[in-house]
Design a protein that fits this description.
There is one protein chain. This protein has helices spanning about 5-10, 55-70, 80-95, 95-105, 110-135, 170-180, 195-210, 220-230, 245-255, 280-290, 310-320, 340-355, 390-395, 410-420, 435-440, 475-480, and strands at about 20, 25, 35-40, 45-50, 140-145, 145-155, 160, 185-190, 215, 235-240, 260-265, 270, 300-305, 360-365, 380-385, 400-405, 420-425, 425-430, 450, 465, 470, 480-490. With about 500 residues, the chain is α/β, with parallel strands linked by helices. It has 2 domains: about 5-265 and about 465-485, Aldehyde Dehydrogenase, Chain A, domain 1; about 270-450, Aldehyde Dehydrogenase, Chain A, domain 2 (3-Layer(aba) Sandwich). The strands form 6 sheets. Strands 14-15-16-13-12-18-19 form a 7-stranded mixed β-sheet, sandwiched between helices. Helix 9 (about 245-255) links the parallel strand 10 (about 235-240) and strand 11 (about 260-265). The protein is globular, with a radius of gyration of 23 Å. About 55% of the residues are buried. It holds the Pfam family Aldedh. It catalyses: an aldehyde + NAD(+) + H2O = a carboxylate + NADH + 2 H(+). Belongs to the aldehyde dehydrogenase family. It is an enzyme of class 1 (oxidoreductase).
Amino acid sequence: MTDTATAAATLVGGGDQPDLYLGGRWVAPHSTTRIDVFSPATGEQVGSVPNGDATDVDTAVAKGRRAFESGVWRAKTPAQRAAVLRRAAELINERSADITGLISAEMGASPTDVATLQQLPGTGVLSGYADAAEAYPWEEKRTGLFGETLVVREPIGVVGAIIAWNVPLFLICNKLGPALAAGCSIVLKPAPETPLDANLLAEIFTEAGVPAGVLSVVTGGLEAGQALVEHPDVDKITFTGSTAAGRIIAARCGDLLKRCSLEMGGKSAAIVLDDVDLPSNIHMLVFSGLLNNGQACVAQTRVLVPRSRHDEIVAAMVETAKTFTPGVPGDPDAKLGPIITDKQRSKVEDYIATGKAEGATAVLDGGRPDGLDSGHFVAPTIFTGVTNDMTIAREEIFGPVISVIAYDTVDEAIAIANDSDYGLAGSVWTSDIARGVEIAKQVRTGTYGINWYAIDPASPFGGYKNSGIGRENGREGLESYLEHKSILMPMGYSSGN
Protein backbone atom coordinates (compact mmCIF):
# COMPACT_ATOMS: atom_id res chain seq x y z
CA MET A 1 0.00 0.00 0.00
CA THR A 2 1.09 3.59 -0.65
CA ASP A 3 0.92 6.18 2.13
CA THR A 4 -2.32 7.50 0.59
CA ALA A 5 -3.96 4.10 0.56
CA THR A 6 -2.86 3.37 4.13
CA ALA A 7 -4.18 6.71 5.38
CA ALA A 8 -7.53 6.17 3.69
CA ALA A 9 -7.92 2.70 5.15
CA THR A 10 -7.30 3.85 8.73
CA LEU A 11 -9.63 6.83 8.84
CA VAL A 12 -12.85 6.62 10.84
CA GLY A 13 -15.78 6.59 8.44
CA GLY A 14 -13.52 5.92 5.46
CA GLY A 15 -11.33 3.23 4.01
CA ASP A 16 -12.71 -0.27 4.49
CA GLN A 17 -16.14 0.37 6.00
CA PRO A 18 -18.32 -2.69 6.72
CA ASP A 19 -21.48 -0.76 7.66
CA LEU A 20 -23.79 2.00 6.45
CA TYR A 21 -24.20 5.31 8.26
CA LEU A 22 -27.96 5.40 8.74
CA GLY A 23 -29.71 8.01 10.87
CA GLY A 24 -26.56 8.97 12.75
CA ARG A 25 -25.14 5.55 13.60
CA TRP A 26 -23.41 2.64 11.92
CA VAL A 27 -25.79 -0.13 10.87
CA ALA A 28 -25.06 -3.50 9.27
CA PRO A 29 -26.29 -3.38 5.67
CA HIS A 30 -28.95 -5.62 4.19
CA SER A 31 -26.91 -5.89 1.01
CA THR A 32 -24.17 -8.52 0.95
CA THR A 33 -22.28 -7.03 -2.00
CA ARG A 34 -19.63 -4.36 -1.81
CA ILE A 35 -18.05 -1.54 -3.82
CA ASP A 36 -14.28 -1.59 -3.99
CA VAL A 37 -12.77 1.85 -4.41
CA PHE A 38 -9.59 2.28 -6.44
CA SER A 39 -7.29 5.26 -6.72
CA PRO A 40 -7.35 6.65 -10.28
CA ALA A 41 -3.84 7.97 -9.65
CA THR A 42 -2.18 4.68 -8.66
CA GLY A 43 -4.65 1.91 -9.45
CA GLU A 44 -4.47 0.67 -5.87
CA GLN A 45 -7.53 -0.26 -3.85
CA VAL A 46 -8.03 2.43 -1.20
CA GLY A 47 -11.28 1.36 0.38
CA SER A 48 -14.45 -0.70 0.30
CA VAL A 49 -18.03 0.16 1.24
CA PRO A 50 -21.39 -1.62 1.17
CA ASN A 51 -23.21 -1.65 -2.16
CA GLY A 52 -26.50 -0.54 -0.62
CA ASP A 53 -29.71 -2.00 -2.02
CA ALA A 54 -33.39 -1.03 -2.04
CA THR A 55 -33.89 -2.42 1.48
CA ASP A 56 -31.05 -0.28 2.80
CA VAL A 57 -32.59 2.76 1.12
CA ASP A 58 -35.94 1.92 2.69
CA THR A 59 -34.31 1.74 6.14
CA ALA A 60 -32.65 5.13 5.63
CA VAL A 61 -35.83 6.77 4.36
CA ALA A 62 -37.88 5.32 7.23
CA LYS A 63 -35.45 6.82 9.73
CA GLY A 64 -35.62 10.15 7.94
CA ARG A 65 -39.42 10.10 7.85
CA ARG A 66 -39.73 9.31 11.57
CA ALA A 67 -37.28 12.09 12.43
CA PHE A 68 -39.13 14.55 10.22
CA GLU A 69 -42.54 13.75 11.62
CA SER A 70 -41.25 13.93 15.19
CA GLY A 71 -40.13 17.52 14.63
CA VAL A 72 -36.75 16.87 16.24
CA TRP A 73 -35.07 18.95 13.53
CA ARG A 74 -37.73 20.89 11.66
CA ALA A 75 -39.10 22.34 14.91
CA LYS A 76 -35.79 23.99 15.70
CA THR A 77 -35.54 27.66 14.88
CA PRO A 78 -33.77 28.73 11.70
CA ALA A 79 -31.05 30.25 13.87
CA GLN A 80 -30.52 26.93 15.65
CA ARG A 81 -30.24 25.06 12.36
CA ALA A 82 -27.89 27.73 11.04
CA ALA A 83 -25.64 27.28 14.06
CA VAL A 84 -25.30 23.57 13.29
CA LEU A 85 -24.30 24.31 9.70
CA ARG A 86 -21.68 26.79 10.85
CA ARG A 87 -20.32 24.26 13.34
CA ALA A 88 -20.16 21.64 10.58
CA ALA A 89 -18.10 24.06 8.49
CA GLU A 90 -15.73 24.60 11.43
CA LEU A 91 -15.33 20.84 11.92
CA ILE A 92 -14.62 20.32 8.22
CA ASN A 93 -11.81 22.85 8.48
CA GLU A 94 -10.53 21.18 11.64
CA ARG A 95 -10.60 17.74 9.98
CA SER A 96 -9.29 18.96 6.63
CA ALA A 97 -6.26 16.65 6.69
CA ASP A 98 -8.45 13.57 7.15
CA ILE A 99 -10.94 14.68 4.51
CA THR A 100 -8.21 15.60 2.03
CA GLY A 101 -6.58 12.20 2.55
CA LEU A 102 -9.80 10.41 1.65
CA ILE A 103 -10.61 12.56 -1.36
CA SER A 104 -7.05 12.38 -2.70
CA ALA A 105 -7.21 8.60 -2.33
CA GLU A 106 -10.58 8.09 -4.01
CA MET A 107 -10.36 10.65 -6.84
CA GLY A 108 -6.67 11.50 -7.15
CA ALA A 109 -7.08 15.22 -6.48
CA SER A 110 -4.10 17.10 -5.10
CA PRO A 111 -4.37 18.63 -1.62
CA THR A 112 -4.33 22.08 -3.24
CA ASP A 113 -7.27 21.21 -5.51
CA VAL A 114 -9.22 19.74 -2.59
CA ALA A 115 -8.64 22.91 -0.61
CA THR A 116 -9.50 25.39 -3.38
CA LEU A 117 -12.10 23.55 -5.46
CA GLN A 118 -13.90 21.64 -2.70
CA GLN A 119 -13.21 22.63 0.91
CA LEU A 120 -13.32 26.41 0.47
CA PRO A 121 -16.54 26.43 -1.60
CA GLY A 122 -18.02 23.60 0.48
CA THR A 123 -17.66 25.40 3.79
CA GLY A 124 -18.65 28.58 1.97
CA VAL A 125 -22.03 27.20 0.93
CA LEU A 126 -22.68 25.95 4.46
CA SER A 127 -22.09 29.44 5.79
CA GLY A 128 -24.13 30.88 2.93
CA TYR A 129 -27.11 28.67 3.68
CA ALA A 130 -26.82 29.50 7.39
CA ASP A 131 -27.00 33.18 6.49
CA ALA A 132 -29.93 32.57 4.13
CA ALA A 133 -31.87 30.65 6.79
CA GLU A 134 -31.47 33.45 9.31
CA ALA A 135 -32.47 36.17 6.84
CA TYR A 136 -35.29 34.30 5.14
CA PRO A 137 -38.92 35.50 5.67
CA TRP A 138 -40.34 32.25 7.05
CA GLU A 139 -43.69 33.95 7.72
CA GLU A 140 -45.18 36.86 5.80
CA LYS A 141 -48.47 38.77 6.01
CA ARG A 142 -50.16 39.75 2.76
CA THR A 143 -53.34 41.65 2.03
CA GLY A 144 -55.31 40.67 -1.06
CA LEU A 145 -58.83 40.40 -2.43
CA PHE A 146 -60.17 38.61 0.64
CA GLY A 147 -58.22 40.45 3.29
CA GLU A 148 -55.25 39.19 5.22
CA THR A 149 -53.35 35.99 4.50
CA LEU A 150 -50.43 34.53 6.44
CA VAL A 151 -47.89 32.95 4.09
CA VAL A 152 -45.65 30.41 5.83
CA ARG A 153 -42.74 28.39 4.48
CA GLU A 154 -42.24 24.83 5.66
CA PRO A 155 -39.62 22.15 4.95
CA ILE A 156 -40.51 19.91 2.05
CA GLY A 157 -39.95 16.67 3.98
CA VAL A 158 -37.52 13.86 3.23
CA VAL A 159 -34.93 14.63 0.56
CA GLY A 160 -33.03 12.14 -1.57
CA ALA A 161 -29.70 13.52 -2.77
CA ILE A 162 -27.72 11.87 -5.57
CA ILE A 163 -24.34 13.35 -6.44
CA ALA A 164 -21.51 13.00 -8.95
CA TRP A 165 -17.89 12.07 -8.27
CA ASN A 166 -16.00 15.11 -9.56
CA VAL A 167 -16.05 17.39 -6.47
CA PRO A 168 -17.63 15.22 -3.76
CA LEU A 169 -16.91 17.41 -0.71
CA PHE A 170 -18.42 20.48 -2.34
CA LEU A 171 -21.42 18.58 -3.71
CA ILE A 172 -22.19 16.98 -0.35
CA CYS A 173 -22.11 20.35 1.39
CA ASN A 174 -24.28 21.85 -1.36
CA LYS A 175 -26.94 19.18 -0.78
CA LEU A 176 -26.83 18.86 3.00
CA GLY A 177 -26.63 22.63 3.48
CA PRO A 178 -30.01 23.69 2.05
CA ALA A 179 -31.88 20.55 3.08
CA LEU A 180 -30.79 20.90 6.70
CA ALA A 181 -31.23 24.69 6.72
CA ALA A 182 -34.81 24.17 5.59
CA GLY A 183 -35.52 21.60 8.32
CA CYS A 184 -35.65 18.52 6.09
CA SER A 185 -34.35 15.01 6.61
CA ILE A 186 -31.93 13.83 3.93
CA VAL A 187 -30.68 10.54 2.51
CA LEU A 188 -27.44 10.98 0.56
CA LYS A 189 -26.25 8.60 -2.14
CA PRO A 190 -22.69 9.46 -3.16
CA ALA A 191 -21.20 8.33 -6.46
CA PRO A 192 -19.82 4.78 -6.32
CA GLU A 193 -16.45 6.09 -7.52
CA THR A 194 -16.07 8.45 -4.52
CA PRO A 195 -18.05 7.17 -1.52
CA LEU A 196 -15.40 7.32 1.18
CA ASP A 197 -15.55 10.98 2.20
CA ALA A 198 -19.36 10.93 2.45
CA ASN A 199 -19.25 8.73 5.54
CA LEU A 200 -16.72 10.92 7.31
CA LEU A 201 -18.70 14.06 6.45
CA ALA A 202 -21.91 12.51 7.78
CA GLU A 203 -20.15 11.83 11.08
CA ILE A 204 -19.01 15.45 11.15
CA PHE A 205 -22.55 16.75 10.64
CA THR A 206 -23.78 14.49 13.43
CA GLU A 207 -21.05 15.80 15.71
CA ALA A 208 -22.08 19.33 14.76
CA GLY A 209 -25.58 18.71 16.10
CA VAL A 210 -27.77 17.05 13.45
CA PRO A 211 -30.18 14.85 15.47
CA ALA A 212 -30.50 11.08 15.14
CA GLY A 213 -32.48 9.92 12.13
CA VAL A 214 -32.17 13.14 10.12
CA LEU A 215 -29.12 12.24 8.01
CA SER A 216 -28.23 8.95 6.34
CA VAL A 217 -25.69 7.89 3.72
CA VAL A 218 -26.42 4.93 1.47
CA THR A 219 -23.35 4.04 -0.55
CA GLY A 220 -24.32 2.18 -3.68
CA GLY A 221 -24.88 2.21 -7.40
CA LEU A 222 -27.81 2.15 -9.76
CA GLU A 223 -30.15 0.10 -7.54
CA ALA A 224 -29.76 2.47 -4.60
CA GLY A 225 -30.28 5.51 -6.82
CA GLN A 226 -33.39 4.09 -8.43
CA ALA A 227 -34.81 3.07 -5.05
CA LEU A 228 -34.29 6.58 -3.72
CA VAL A 229 -36.04 8.18 -6.70
CA GLU A 230 -38.92 5.69 -6.56
CA HIS A 231 -39.46 5.72 -2.79
CA PRO A 232 -42.94 7.02 -1.90
CA ASP A 233 -41.69 8.63 1.33
CA VAL A 234 -39.06 10.73 -0.45
CA ASP A 235 -40.60 14.13 -1.11
CA LYS A 236 -37.82 15.65 -3.25
CA ILE A 237 -34.88 14.47 -5.31
CA THR A 238 -31.86 16.71 -5.77
CA PHE A 239 -29.40 15.48 -8.35
CA THR A 240 -26.00 16.54 -9.65
CA GLY A 241 -24.61 14.51 -12.53
CA SER A 242 -24.88 13.83 -16.22
CA THR A 243 -27.65 15.20 -18.40
CA ALA A 244 -28.50 11.67 -19.55
CA ALA A 245 -29.09 10.45 -15.98
CA GLY A 246 -30.88 13.70 -15.09
CA ARG A 247 -33.38 13.20 -17.91
CA ILE A 248 -34.28 9.76 -16.54
CA ILE A 249 -34.66 11.09 -13.00
CA ALA A 250 -36.74 14.05 -14.16
CA ALA A 251 -39.07 11.79 -16.16
CA ARG A 252 -39.62 9.47 -13.22
CA CYS A 253 -40.14 12.33 -10.78
CA GLY A 254 -42.68 13.73 -13.25
CA ASP A 255 -44.56 10.44 -13.28
CA LEU A 256 -44.58 10.39 -9.48
CA LEU A 257 -45.28 14.13 -9.13
CA LYS A 258 -42.19 14.26 -6.96
CA ARG A 259 -40.33 17.55 -6.66
CA CYS A 260 -36.84 17.56 -8.13
CA SER A 261 -33.95 19.88 -8.85
CA LEU A 262 -31.27 18.98 -11.36
CA GLU A 263 -27.75 20.33 -11.84
CA MET A 264 -26.34 18.71 -14.95
CA GLY A 265 -23.88 19.20 -17.78
CA GLY A 266 -22.35 22.17 -19.50
CA LYS A 267 -20.35 23.28 -22.52
CA SER A 268 -19.43 26.75 -21.42
CA ALA A 269 -17.97 29.43 -23.65
CA ALA A 270 -15.26 31.90 -22.63
CA ILE A 271 -15.54 34.95 -24.91
CA VAL A 272 -12.18 36.69 -25.20
CA LEU A 273 -12.58 40.26 -26.47
CA ASP A 274 -10.09 42.17 -28.56
CA ASP A 275 -9.17 44.49 -25.67
CA VAL A 276 -8.19 41.69 -23.27
CA ASP A 277 -5.06 42.22 -21.19
CA LEU A 278 -3.59 38.86 -22.09
CA PRO A 279 -0.62 38.69 -19.66
CA SER A 280 -2.92 39.44 -16.72
CA ASN A 281 -5.61 36.94 -17.71
CA ILE A 282 -4.04 34.05 -19.59
CA HIS A 283 -3.44 31.79 -16.60
CA MET A 284 -6.97 32.17 -15.26
CA LEU A 285 -8.41 31.70 -18.76
CA VAL A 286 -6.63 28.38 -19.22
CA PHE A 287 -7.34 27.33 -15.64
CA SER A 288 -11.06 27.94 -16.24
CA GLY A 289 -10.96 25.30 -18.97
CA LEU A 290 -8.70 22.81 -17.20
CA LEU A 291 -9.90 23.09 -13.59
CA ASN A 292 -10.23 19.69 -11.95
CA ASN A 293 -8.60 18.24 -15.08
CA GLY A 294 -11.60 19.40 -17.10
CA GLN A 295 -13.87 17.23 -14.95
CA ALA A 296 -16.15 20.12 -14.07
CA CYS A 297 -19.58 20.94 -15.42
CA VAL A 298 -18.66 24.65 -15.39
CA ALA A 299 -15.33 24.28 -17.23
CA GLN A 300 -14.85 26.93 -19.92
CA THR A 301 -13.94 24.45 -22.64
CA ARG A 302 -14.99 26.55 -25.65
CA VAL A 303 -12.68 29.55 -25.92
CA LEU A 304 -13.96 32.11 -28.43
CA VAL A 305 -11.19 34.42 -29.64
CA PRO A 306 -11.18 37.41 -32.05
CA ARG A 307 -9.62 36.46 -35.36
CA SER A 308 -7.47 39.60 -35.18
CA ARG A 309 -5.62 38.23 -32.11
CA HIS A 310 -6.14 34.50 -32.69
CA ASP A 311 -2.52 33.40 -33.10
CA GLU A 312 -1.27 35.51 -30.19
CA ILE A 313 -3.92 34.17 -27.81
CA VAL A 314 -3.50 30.55 -28.91
CA ALA A 315 0.29 30.71 -28.47
CA ALA A 316 -0.16 32.05 -24.93
CA MET A 317 -2.77 29.38 -24.15
CA VAL A 318 -0.49 26.59 -25.34
CA GLU A 319 2.50 27.77 -23.31
CA THR A 320 0.34 28.18 -20.23
CA ALA A 321 -1.37 24.81 -20.64
CA LYS A 322 2.03 23.11 -20.83
CA THR A 323 2.60 24.16 -17.21
CA PHE A 324 -0.49 22.16 -16.14
CA THR A 325 1.45 18.95 -15.65
CA PRO A 326 -0.35 15.80 -14.50
CA GLY A 327 0.80 13.90 -11.43
CA VAL A 328 -0.15 11.95 -8.33
CA PRO A 329 -1.52 13.80 -5.27
CA GLY A 330 1.84 13.79 -3.45
CA ASP A 331 3.77 15.32 -6.34
CA PRO A 332 4.44 19.02 -5.51
CA ASP A 333 4.92 19.81 -9.22
CA ALA A 334 1.62 18.28 -10.33
CA LYS A 335 -1.10 20.69 -11.45
CA LEU A 336 -3.62 18.11 -12.73
CA GLY A 337 -4.85 14.86 -11.29
CA PRO A 338 -6.03 11.74 -13.13
CA ILE A 339 -9.22 11.04 -15.00
CA ILE A 340 -11.59 9.25 -12.62
CA THR A 341 -11.67 5.85 -14.40
CA ASP A 342 -9.97 4.14 -17.29
CA LYS A 343 -13.35 4.06 -19.08
CA GLN A 344 -13.66 7.83 -18.78
CA ARG A 345 -10.10 8.31 -19.99
CA SER A 346 -10.88 6.23 -23.07
CA LYS A 347 -13.94 8.40 -23.65
CA VAL A 348 -11.79 11.55 -23.49
CA GLU A 349 -9.29 10.03 -25.91
CA ASP A 350 -12.11 9.11 -28.28
CA TYR A 351 -13.22 12.76 -28.29
CA ILE A 352 -9.67 13.86 -29.10
CA ALA A 353 -9.57 11.41 -32.01
CA THR A 354 -12.97 12.64 -33.19
CA GLY A 355 -11.78 16.24 -33.12
CA LYS A 356 -8.85 15.38 -35.35
CA ALA A 357 -11.06 13.32 -37.69
CA GLU A 358 -13.52 16.21 -38.08
CA GLY A 359 -10.76 18.59 -39.13
CA ALA A 360 -9.65 20.38 -35.97
CA THR A 361 -5.92 20.84 -35.32
CA ALA A 362 -4.39 19.74 -32.03
CA VAL A 363 -1.86 22.54 -31.47
CA LEU A 364 -1.21 20.94 -28.08
CA ASP A 365 -1.68 17.18 -28.10
CA GLY A 366 -1.19 16.04 -24.55
CA GLY A 367 -1.81 12.31 -24.70
CA ARG A 368 -0.84 9.95 -21.90
CA PRO A 369 2.11 11.37 -19.95
CA ASP A 370 5.23 9.29 -19.43
CA GLY A 371 5.93 7.76 -16.05
CA LEU A 372 2.30 7.63 -14.88
CA ASP A 373 1.30 4.29 -16.36
CA SER A 374 -0.48 3.02 -13.23
CA GLY A 375 -3.03 5.85 -13.24
CA HIS A 376 -5.62 7.22 -15.65
CA PHE A 377 -3.78 10.34 -16.77
CA VAL A 378 -4.28 12.57 -19.81
CA ALA A 379 -2.32 15.78 -20.39
CA PRO A 380 -4.05 18.91 -21.77
CA THR A 381 -5.09 19.12 -25.41
CA ILE A 382 -5.92 22.38 -27.22
CA PHE A 383 -7.66 22.37 -30.60
CA THR A 384 -7.78 25.20 -33.14
CA GLY A 385 -9.73 25.35 -36.37
CA VAL A 386 -12.82 24.30 -34.43
CA THR A 387 -16.26 25.20 -35.71
CA ASN A 388 -19.22 25.18 -33.40
CA ASP A 389 -20.88 22.27 -35.21
CA MET A 390 -18.02 19.88 -34.41
CA THR A 391 -18.55 17.16 -31.83
CA ILE A 392 -15.84 18.52 -29.52
CA ALA A 393 -17.61 21.90 -29.49
CA ARG A 394 -21.05 20.51 -28.76
CA GLU A 395 -20.64 17.60 -26.34
CA GLU A 396 -19.36 17.67 -22.78
CA ILE A 397 -16.01 15.85 -22.77
CA PHE A 398 -15.23 15.98 -19.04
CA GLY A 399 -11.51 15.98 -19.62
CA PRO A 400 -8.63 18.44 -20.25
CA VAL A 401 -9.65 19.37 -23.80
CA ILE A 402 -10.14 22.99 -24.92
CA SER A 403 -11.61 24.01 -28.27
CA VAL A 404 -10.61 27.41 -29.68
CA ILE A 405 -13.19 28.97 -32.00
CA ALA A 406 -12.38 32.13 -33.99
CA TYR A 407 -14.92 34.92 -34.49
CA ASP A 408 -15.03 38.20 -36.41
CA THR A 409 -17.60 40.27 -34.49
CA VAL A 410 -18.82 40.33 -30.90
CA ASP A 411 -22.35 39.59 -32.08
CA GLU A 412 -21.02 36.47 -33.78
CA ALA A 413 -19.25 35.43 -30.56
CA ILE A 414 -22.46 35.81 -28.56
CA ALA A 415 -24.35 33.77 -31.16
CA ILE A 416 -21.73 31.00 -30.97
CA ALA A 417 -21.85 31.00 -27.17
CA ASN A 418 -25.66 30.68 -27.27
CA ASP A 419 -25.59 27.98 -29.95
CA SER A 420 -25.42 25.14 -27.45
CA ASP A 421 -27.74 22.60 -25.86
CA TYR A 422 -26.33 23.72 -22.51
CA GLY A 423 -26.41 26.92 -20.49
CA LEU A 424 -24.69 26.44 -17.15
CA ALA A 425 -21.72 28.81 -17.06
CA GLY A 426 -19.68 31.20 -19.15
CA SER A 427 -17.25 34.08 -19.02
CA VAL A 428 -16.02 37.16 -20.88
CA TRP A 429 -12.45 38.48 -20.84
CA THR A 430 -12.05 42.21 -21.36
CA SER A 431 -10.48 45.42 -20.06
CA ASP A 432 -13.89 47.14 -20.22
CA ILE A 433 -16.03 45.80 -17.36
CA ALA A 434 -19.18 47.63 -18.52
CA ARG A 435 -18.79 46.04 -21.93
CA GLY A 436 -18.38 42.67 -20.23
CA VAL A 437 -21.61 43.11 -18.28
CA GLU A 438 -23.52 43.94 -21.47
CA ILE A 439 -22.25 40.77 -23.11
CA ALA A 440 -23.02 38.70 -20.01
CA LYS A 441 -26.64 39.83 -20.19
CA GLN A 442 -26.93 38.49 -23.76
CA VAL A 443 -25.57 34.99 -23.12
CA ARG A 444 -28.23 32.48 -22.07
CA THR A 445 -26.54 30.79 -19.18
CA GLY A 446 -27.20 30.57 -15.45
CA THR A 447 -23.87 31.90 -14.17
CA TYR A 448 -21.25 34.13 -15.74
CA GLY A 449 -17.88 35.59 -14.86
CA ILE A 450 -15.90 38.61 -16.01
CA ASN A 451 -12.17 37.87 -16.25
CA TRP A 452 -12.61 34.72 -14.16
CA TYR A 453 -15.24 32.18 -13.16
CA ALA A 454 -16.40 30.99 -9.76
CA ILE A 455 -19.55 29.84 -7.98
CA ASP A 456 -20.52 32.30 -5.25
CA PRO A 457 -22.27 30.72 -2.23
CA ALA A 458 -24.63 33.67 -1.78
CA SER A 459 -25.79 33.83 -5.40
CA PRO A 460 -28.05 31.43 -7.33
CA PHE A 461 -26.30 28.70 -9.31
CA GLY A 462 -27.94 26.56 -11.97
CA GLY A 463 -28.50 26.23 -15.66
CA TYR A 464 -30.62 27.01 -18.67
CA LYS A 465 -31.67 24.43 -21.25
CA ASN A 466 -30.10 20.97 -20.80
CA SER A 467 -27.96 22.13 -17.89
CA GLY A 468 -30.70 21.62 -15.36
CA ILE A 469 -33.80 22.68 -13.50
CA GLY A 470 -33.82 24.89 -10.43
CA ARG A 471 -31.15 26.82 -8.56
CA GLU A 472 -28.73 26.13 -5.74
CA ASN A 473 -27.06 28.59 -3.32
CA GLY A 474 -28.44 31.66 -1.59
CA ARG A 475 -32.11 32.29 -0.95
CA GLU A 476 -33.07 30.61 -4.22
CA GLY A 477 -31.32 27.39 -3.21
CA LEU A 478 -33.03 27.34 0.18
CA GLU A 479 -36.47 27.94 -1.34
CA SER A 480 -36.27 24.80 -3.45
CA TYR A 481 -36.43 22.76 -0.22
CA LEU A 482 -39.56 24.54 1.05
CA GLU A 483 -43.30 24.36 0.54
CA HIS A 484 -45.34 27.58 0.62
CA LYS A 485 -48.57 27.54 2.60
CA SER A 486 -51.24 30.27 2.59
CA ILE A 487 -53.42 30.61 5.71
CA LEU A 488 -56.45 32.83 5.03
CA MET A 489 -57.65 34.86 7.98
CA PRO A 490 -61.39 35.38 8.60
CA MET A 491 -63.13 38.03 6.54
CA GLY A 492 -62.57 41.44 8.14
CA TYR A 493 -59.76 40.17 10.37
CA SER A 494 -56.68 42.35 10.75
CA SER A 495 -53.63 41.42 12.83
CA GLY A 496 -53.13 45.13 13.34
CA ASN A 497 -56.33 45.40 15.47
